[in-house]
Design a protein that fits this description.
With 134 residues, the protein is an alpha+beta fold. It has 2 helices and 4 strands, in the order H-E-E-E-E-H. The strands form 2 sheets. It has a two-stranded antiparallel ribbon. It has a two-stranded antiparallel sheet with strand order 3-4.
Length: 134
């Protein structure tokens, strides 16, 4: 494995975690949503990662393989005066759990930061290696 493949591997992880952060932000933005553009309640989305070969040296990186919707039923609240209420007076809210999404956000943010730190450390080591030859 080449020293330079570290940048490819960490770069792929940074890109994947950035996409995960975007999905978490979308979920948090819709935590109290009643209906989406299609008239249905918003469904939380989850990112699935997959390892992927990065080159001929056998190194593997990560990529987002899919963004799936969570099909658990949304929270139903009895609000008969709400214009979005059904015939029984219940309003179905998004199935987003704000606490879980905050945990996902912290996890994705830390993973992003760790991979940036890996790239900075690799860069520093490469620079020191070049300075030894002077």
């Amino acid at each position: 494995m080449s020293m330079f493949s570290i940048f490819n591997i960490s770069g792929s992880a940074v890109s994947a975690q950035a996409q995960r952060l975007n999905v978490v932000a979308s979920n948090l933005a819709n935590v109290d949503a009643v209906a989406g553009p299609d008239g249905q309640a918003y469904k939380a989305r989850q990112v699935l990662f997959q390892t992927t070969p990065m080159g001929s040296d056998g190194a593997a990186g990560v990529r987002v393989s899919a963004v799936n919707e969570d099909n658990t039923p949304g929270r139903r609240v009895h609000e008969p005066n709400n214009p979005m209420a059904d015939a029984q007076g219940y309003v179905t809210y998004a199935n987003v759990n704000a606490v879980e999404e905050m945990v996902n956000m912290i996890s994705a943010s830390r993973s992003y930061q760790n991979n940036v730190e890996v790239m900075n450390t690799a860069k520093s080591l490469l620079l020191k290696t070049l300075q030894m030859g002077q």
